[in-house]
Amino acid sequence: MLSLVxxxxxGGSNLRALLEASEDAEFPARVVAIGADRDADxxxxxxxxxxxxxxxxxxxxxxxxxxxxxxxxQIQQWQPDLVVLSGLMRLLPxxxxxxxxxxxxNTHPAYLPEFPGAHGVRDxxxxxxxxxxxxxxxxxxxxxxxxxxxxxxxPVLAGDTETTLHERIKTVERRLLVQxxxxxxxxxxxxKELSHT
Length: 197
Description:
- N(1)-(5-phospho-beta-D-ribosyl)glycinamide binds at residues 12-14.
- The protein is an alpha/beta fold.
- The chain is 37% helix and 22% strand.
- Strands 3-2-1-4-5-6-7 form a seven-stranded mixed β-sheet, sandwiched between helices.
């Protein structure tokens, strides 16, 4: 059974997809803890699904490294097999990445390497792109530059706003994430091999 710690900053829609998938006794992974860098709405899913939560507020630490050290300490208490960044809106310090890699994955609302960074959906619209996508990557110290685990194209429709496009991308992200966790748990995806190609 693959154990997961999921880190969020917002509502946790990808997290909900994982929690719902893991309610199936046949699904080979379980979320053992939910963490956030702020008082995120998605923490309420912990209570709904009976999963412990923790918060490491960025603002209560002197710098990114101090915040990262506390976050890492909280994560490591759970000894997860995999850490999923699911809408966490902060870059992890290099020593946190080093400690968790390659069992550290992130969802991104674009077809990488297109539109990396915090505003992938907005950037795709601003560029007038006819299509964008969703990606799941192994986290490294670059900005959305890690090895790609899975990705899928999403068309940009006439009249799309950042909100409507992001909602359609999130639907694909959720499916990619649940499938990737399944594939990692079943040994069909080897994160170590991906990280060394």
